[in-house]
Specification:
The chain is of the alpha/beta class and 371 residues long. The chain is 38% helix and 14% strand. It binds pyridoxal-5'-phosphate. Pyridoxal-5'-phosphate binds next to helix 4 and helix 5. The site of pyridoxal-5'-phosphate (PLP) has 15 residues, from helix 4 and helix 5.
């Protein structure tokens, strides 16, 4: 079976370096908020080009805490509206609800699967305070257009960059476009820890300071709590793992781009819609998503041919039980994507032979006899 993503093989490439880093942490006797975190935050800051990076426990917390910090700083209040793409992963939306803010779902562009700036402007009301674009599947959203809208309407922008570490548009990386950005280092993300981890990047020093306190019980100074914060810290051992992995990220992205090129060149089937890429640098191919009306039949066919695929994502947020109040609403573009999307194997360790086998299996799909 060609695996969708072989995490074991990915981390095995760096085993020696990871063991050295883990040993360093074990022997240091210091496991939280220490030199490893500080070093990784600095490295990630340099990588993204933003002024500050604040490590937190996971990507969801990165988004939750940023919105929370804006509330603490008086920039947001309960009931304010946050514009978010209707086809995103649920975490982007949970972060809004968790802060008693109102998610306003906006349909994506069908070519890029990213939020359509044309739909943002008409969704803005007097209560709108934030746009939360998601760089979905690894491709930067149309940030020039989104920042232009935000400036004209005086809105904050929080990038959900959980899938897009290293994506670049107009010389600017993901995490350095909006007022802040949330990253996830979940093991399967392009920059993955060996457990949960996340970070916020920002150029706003006041926001960075507030986040440093919020992630640590609302405290800058031990036993002095100026806000009702939470415990959301990035462990030393994960920071050490991430420093190792960050050193290899550019090589891994280059490999993902080569795989994507081969897929785009090789896949040729009347029933399969290929993804589009605005520019080579703007996409880091966290996932390679094709669309097919007979998705279930295609997935079965691929499994029979030894190709593992996943669906990102099977149920749109507005159809989730967690958001019952939205279940009757209609977002036809998102619904179509959720019915047709299929993610092919892509990752830093997939081989040329495997890529050729995936392409062959796809091009062999006989959609007349199936489904
Ligand atoms: C993974 C992901 C998150 C959440 O990150 P976790 O580290 O799993 O909490 C948020 N948004 C998007 C778009 C993601 O893909």
């Amino acid at each position: 079976m060609i695996p969708f993503l072989d995490l074991k093989a990915i981390n095995a490439q760096y085993r020696d370096e990871l063991v050295v880093a883990a040993t360093r942490v074990i022997d240091s006797g210091w496991y939280i908020n220490g030199d490893e975190l500080e070093a990784f935050e600095k490295e990630f800051t340099n990588y993204c080009g933003a002024k500050h990076a604040i490590g937190v426990a996971n990507g969801l917390d990165a988004l939750i805490l940023t919105l929370r910090a804006w509330k603490e700083l008086g920039k947001l209040q309960k009931g304010n509206e946050v514009i978010v793409p209707s086809n995103t992963y649920i975490a982007s939306i949970l972060a809004i609800s968790a802060n008693d803010l109102t998610p306003i779902l906006v349909e994506p562009d069908l070519d890029t699967y990213n939020i359509d700036p044309k739909n943002i402007e008409s969704a803005i009301t007097k209560k709108t305070k934030v746009i939360l674009p998601v760089h979905l599947y690894g491709q930067l959203a149309d940030m020039p257009a989104i920042m232009d809208i935000a400036q004209r309407h005086n809105l904050l922008v929080l990038e959900d960059a959980a899938q897009a570490h290293g994506a670049i548009l107009e010389d600017r990386k993901a995490g350095n476009w909006g007022d802040a950005a949330g990253f996830s280092f979940y093991p399967g993300k392009n920059l993955g820890a060996l457990g949960d981890a996340g970070a916020v990047t920002t150029n706003d020093t006041e926001l960075a300071e507030t986040l440093r306190a919020l992630r640590n019980y609302g405290s800058y100074e031990k036993y002095r709590n100026i806000m009702q914060g939470i415990n959301s810290r990035l462990d030393e051992i994960q920071a050490a793992m991430l420093s190792v992995k960050l050193g290899h990220l550019e090589t891994e992205i280059a490999h993902r781009r080569e795989v994507a090129d081969l897929y785009l060149k090789g896949i040729n089937h009347p029933s399969i819609i290929l993804p589009t890429c605005k520019s080579r640098d703007a996409h880091v191919w966290h996932v390679f998503v094709i669309r097919c009306e007979k998705r279930e039949a295609l997935q079965k066919h691929l499994a029979n041919q030894g190709v593992q695929t996943l669906i990102h994502y099977p149920i749109p947020p507005h159809k989730q039980q967690a958001y019952k109040e939205w279940n009757d609403l209609s977002y036809p573009v998102s619904e179509m994507i959720h019915q047709q999307a299929l993610s092919l194997p892509i990752g830093p360790t997939i081989t040329e032979q495997e890529i050729a086998d995936v392409i062959k299996a796809l091009n062999n799909f006989d959609n007349k006899n199936l489904g």
